[in-house]
Amino acid sequence: MSKQHWLNIGYDRSKYPETGGDGNLIVDKESQKFVKVWQGPNHPGVTGNMSVELTISGDEIVEAKTHVGYLHRGFEKLFERRKFIQVFPTCIRMCVAEPDYNEYNLAASIEELGGIEVPEVAQWLRTLVLEMARLQTLLRVVPGQGGTTGLGIGVQWGVYLRDLILDRFEELTGGRVYHMYIIPGGVRGLLPAGFKKRMLDNLSKIDEFVQNIDNVMYSNAVFKKRTVGIGYIDPAWVNSFGIVGPNARAAGFKRDVRKDYPYLKYPELDFDPYTATESDIYTRSRVRWHDLQITVDLIRQILDKMPDDGQIRAETPNVLHWKIPKGETYVRAESSRGEYGFYVVSDGTEYPRRINLRGPSYTHAVSLLEHLLIGANIADVANIMVSLQTCPPEIER
Amino acid sequence: MKKIIENLGYKFILYEVEYQRKNLTFVTVDKENTVQLLAYLRDYEGFKHFVLMTAVDWIEDGLFQITYILNNPKKKIDLAIRTKILREKAKMTTAHHLWNQVATYQRELKEMFGIDFPGSPRVNESFILEGWDNIPPMRRDFDTKKYAEETYFPRLGRGTNDPSEYMKQKLYPNE
């Protein structure tokens, strides 16, 4: 809050607002010393359809307000009118970047309430698909951090490699972006012939990319100057703001749902979530770069360990007439942004009573961003937003 | 988890306790004790991570259920606190002072369910909807179909064609 921005150290700050007794800046909007600037909804530095209303003093932000609602489609309301199986094509739209976590969370909630055990092979395939979803997201997000500082080449490499992973998704599920592969009781199909080899070829290309992006982006003097020491998240905020995923791991909190609340086949895989302590934009991006390598390694382990054949779906009642027993549950998974959960309430009918999504962006892009931007330079807003990896659809569902 | 619930039982009146999973338990408490319980769980039982807060409309009973899910990152367990309030003039004690993101949840619940949280920052500012003048849309008695039919009427000048007839006319008009 009152932390002085590093750009202003040593400068005359008499024109900037003072800090009040409560730690907040005293912003007298009637004084005509301040300017309102809207960052978004149409702005290359905004992560999706949202905007931030900034009040600036000089080039320093003194107040920030997040505005969402540009793509509200009332998903959670729509679910009330749909049978459980009909929720799948809608719920995946709640996060375009990683739709598979919606499928998994909903399927796992239905299975838990309905008492269904998922077969072994289906669990392996689900683990594979969730890691592939993380991989294709990180291939966009990791170089995307460079994109906000004008380093476009990494983004182009990432888009190409992500397309290769989307090819694998297409041959496995039939869809490139939305897959609807995970269904109650299991998955829709086995791996096609030759899938493993093609996937391993793609992964070796990603290995090269990991090295190249390290050389081009993380060693770049301009990138470092724009990211090191900026957008600092105090570790004390992790609990008070509900920060999760890479943003929490960059602040020294080793929190990963895959390790803390093991699900699917993660207990049989060998990995160690990467943590750091610097908690600035550079570190958060670096944590994601490590996450990318961990994901590549996990996919190799999954392909090596998973059985080639077996039952892919458990017996379930007719999904169009399936009355899910009355009850409530909360199921979570680790998305590339952190804890992603579904709170599902069934009243014993074929229709869900309530499905509520807990997305990491709900706190990262609203309460945390509004807090984090105060004292930042206006040129760093895009950089800070991208470093939080926000996804607006999961805020407004 | 059972030990925590047992301890809570000495301090608060717990109505329904459901052990959903080894690491997830649901309890129901009075509206008056809810925020105290949340503060106690955060400060004394290690439930430092606020997972979510939402409402469920039990219109047939005339009640809203507010659910808070808390997480203990050390013990790796979740506790869901449920409380029921009347639908008519729905009002609940604010918990924004316990976690920073709670104010956002309460702002959304005010807009979507019409549940008021007096004293919560910016609770009356619109969050997602702008210029909404109907009943709060997440209430069960809000009819989405009726609203859509009344609001989004067919555009003038638009017509529909039978696809096979239309293509026949386009491709083989003389046959």
Q: Count of helices of chain A?
A: 14
Q: Helix- and strand-based class of chain B?
A: alpha+beta
- Give the tally of β-strands of chain A: 8
The largest beta-sheet of chain A arranges its strands as: 1-2-3
Q: What oligomerization state is this entry in? A: heterodimer
**CATH architecture term of the largest domain in chain A:** Orthogonal Bundle
The shape of chain A, in one word, is globular
Q: Please, how many domains of chain B? A: 1
* Measured distance between first and last alpha carbons of chain A: 30 Å
Q: Radius of gyration of chain A, Cα only, in angstroms?
A: 22 Å
Estimate the strand proportion of chain A. Answer: 5-15%
* Total count of helical runs of at least 4 residues of chain B: 5
Note the overall shape of chain B: elongated
Write the CATH fold name of the largest domain in chain A.
Cytochrome-c3 Hydrogenase, chain B
Mind telling me the CATH superfamily name of the largest domain in chain A? Cytochrome-c3 Hydrogenase, chain B
Order of helices and strands of chain A: EEEHHHHHEEHHHHHHEEEHHH
CATH-defined topology of chain B: Beta Polymerase, domain 2
Kindly report the spatial arrangement of strands forming the biggest sheet of chain B. Answer: 1-2-5-4-3
Separation of termini of chain B? 77 Å
Rg for CA atoms of chain B: 24 Å
What is the element layout, followed by pairings?
The complex is a heterodimer of chains A (397) and B (175).
Chain A: E1 35-39, E2 51-57, E3 60-67, H1 75-79, H2 84-91, H3 100-114, H4 120-147, H5 153-173, E4 182-183, E5 186-187, H6 195-218, H7 221-227, H8 237-241, H9 245-249, H10 257-260, H11 281-305, E6 327-335, E7 338-346, E8 352-358, H12 361-372, H13 381-388, H14 393-396
Antiparallel strand pairs in A: 1-2, 2-3, 4-5, 6-7, 7-8
Helix pairs in contact in A: 4-5, 4-11, 5-6, 6-11, 11-13
Chain B: H1 2-11, E1 17-21, E2 24-29, H2 31-44, E3 49-58, E4 63-72, E5 77-86, H3 102-113, H4 144-151, H5 163-171
